[in-house]
């Protein structure tokens, strides 16, 4: 195997398996102009280890940390997160960290019985930095399943990911980005569409369909790519009398009646949107002159909750929810679990408590009128994220209590 190392990397050797073992870099010895080329060499080494059929290890030593100086984790399919790795490792080197990459162990096949056992997240250290959150088996499975579910490769995904449950948002997205990458086949379960940029900070749109199970499936696997943002732009039922069809709802919190994550994230754990992303969305709403309300979104796993109302109505009233949907809390909860800043911008399509249900003819007229504005507001907020936070949004609200800081400009 040929490994491309930068001139600043050192310590390369060869194992009996023919795999180049390590490339080490001391950021304190690098001039500012050497960092990007050095990181490119490190990431090339990781990709070459993948190609040789091994999992790799990244070890980061932070001399400034007296409590957690050494962070380490195993990786696979690094080609799918190459830009993310480049950004994070470069930030560490600029602050004087020492980084080593090397082979860890032979990669397991999906048909290896030990592969299944390695996927169990119950053993994951919840204090892990986002960079080290997933094991190599998990990364390999998610990269493969993203291709299966979305009809596009994991490498096509961009730093900002929108989730929708309606094809109309796909239509608006393709109108805006006619050159977007589209699924390679018809019938993909959760088709994805990608507006590519050279730096990978474009936008991907995934039509997850309806329901919290789909929302969990999609975000379980997208999270492995370490996106900068996840944003739900679906529809909802408005629960307040003065709301109108076409008004927007900006979630400030969630009532989790979706149930799909209850066992891994207890209901007594607060889940809130990213404050900075919500601020950008709020300013985009006001800039567009849109009608909106902010408040709690009640997410249910029962599409026909109206048929058995008592429990759901009592919960909505107790939480003072302003809207009901089936996906937002699930996406937010998985964003919390996997350290991904997230938010929810919904559009009212019906008012189930006020004699205005979602009926076919009226719904189609509403969809056509709202789809471009809804997408445009979301994209406007993401433009600000891209300009003002190219290294990722501040994520204090999803950092663990004793999670070690990297100590540099990147805090993911």
Keywords:
412 residues; alpha/beta; Rossmann fold; 2 domains; 5-stranded mixed barrel; 4-stranded antiparallel sheet; 10 helices; 13 strands
Layout of secondary structure:
Elements: E1 23-26, H1 35-51, E2 54-61, E3 70-75, H2 82-94, E4 98-106, H3 113-118, H4 136-150, E5 160-164, H5 167-176, E6 192-195, E7 203-207, H6 212-222, E8 229-232, E9 235-238, E10 248-257, H7 275-287, E11 292-300, H8 310-319, E12 323-325, H9 328-337, E13 342-350, H10 360-388
Helix pairs in contact: 1-2, 4-6, 5-10, 6-9, 7-10
Written description of the protein model:
The chain is an alpha/beta fold. The protein has two domains: 110 residues, no CATH class; 246 residues, Rossmann fold, CATH 3.40.50.1580. Helices cover 33% and strands 19% of the residues. It is built from ten helices and 13 strands. The strands form two sheets. The protein has a five-stranded mixed barrel, surrounded by four helices. Strand 6 and strand 7 form a beta hairpin. Helix 1 crosses helix 2 and helix 7 packs across helix 10. The longest helix has 29 residues.
């Amino acid at each position: 195997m040929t490994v491309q190392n930068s001139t600043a990397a050192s310590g390369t050797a060869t194992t009996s398996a023919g795999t180049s073992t390590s490339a080490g870099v001391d950021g304190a010895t690098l001039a500012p102009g050497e960092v990007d080329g050095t990181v490119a060499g490190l990431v090339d080494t990781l990709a070459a280890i993948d190609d040789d059929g091994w999992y790799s290890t990244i070890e980061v030593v932070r001399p400034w940390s007296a409590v957690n100086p050494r962070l380490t984790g195993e990786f696979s399919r690094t080609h799918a997160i190459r830009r993310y790795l480049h950004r994070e490792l470069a930030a560490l080197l600029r602050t004087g960290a020492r980084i080593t990459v090397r082979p860890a162990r032979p990669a397991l096949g999906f048909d290896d019985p030990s592969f299944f056992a390695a996927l169990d997240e119950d053993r994951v250290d919840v204090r892990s930095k986002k960079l080290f959150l997933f094991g190599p088996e998990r990364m390999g499975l998610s990269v493969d399943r993203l291709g299966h579910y979305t009809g596009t490769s994991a490498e096509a995904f961009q730093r900002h990911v929108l989730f929708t449950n309606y094809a109309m948002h796909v239509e608006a997205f393709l109108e805006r980005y006619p050159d977007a990458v589209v699924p390679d086949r018809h019938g993909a379960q959760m088709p994805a569409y990608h507006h590519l940029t050279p730096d990978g900070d474009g936008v991907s749109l995934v039509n997850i369909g309806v329901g919290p199970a789909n929302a969990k499936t999609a975000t379980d696997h997208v999270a492995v790519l370490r996106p900068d943002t996840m944003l739900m732009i679906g529809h909802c039922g408005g629960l307040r009398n003065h709301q109108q069809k076409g008004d927007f709802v900006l979630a400030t919190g969630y009532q989790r009646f979706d149930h799909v994550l209850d066992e891994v994230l207890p209901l007594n754990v607060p889940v809130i949107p990213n404050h900075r992303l919500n601020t950008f969305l709020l300013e985009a709403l006001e800039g567009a002159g849109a009608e909106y309300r902010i408040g709690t979104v009640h997410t249910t796993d029962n599409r026909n909750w109206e048929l058995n109302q008592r429990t759901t109505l009592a919960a909505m009233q107790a939480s003072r929810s302003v809207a009901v949907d089936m996906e937002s809390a699930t996406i937010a909860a998985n964003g919390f679990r996997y350290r991904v800043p997230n938010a929810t911008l919904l559009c009212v399509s019906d008012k189930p408590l006020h004699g205005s249900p979602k009926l076919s003819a009226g719904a189609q007229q509403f969809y056509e009128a709202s789809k471009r504005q809804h997408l445009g507001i979301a994209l406007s907020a993401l433009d600000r994220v891209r300009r003002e936070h190219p290294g990722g949004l501040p994520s204090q609200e999803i950092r663990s209590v004793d999670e070690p800081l990297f100590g540099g400009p990147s805090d993911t």
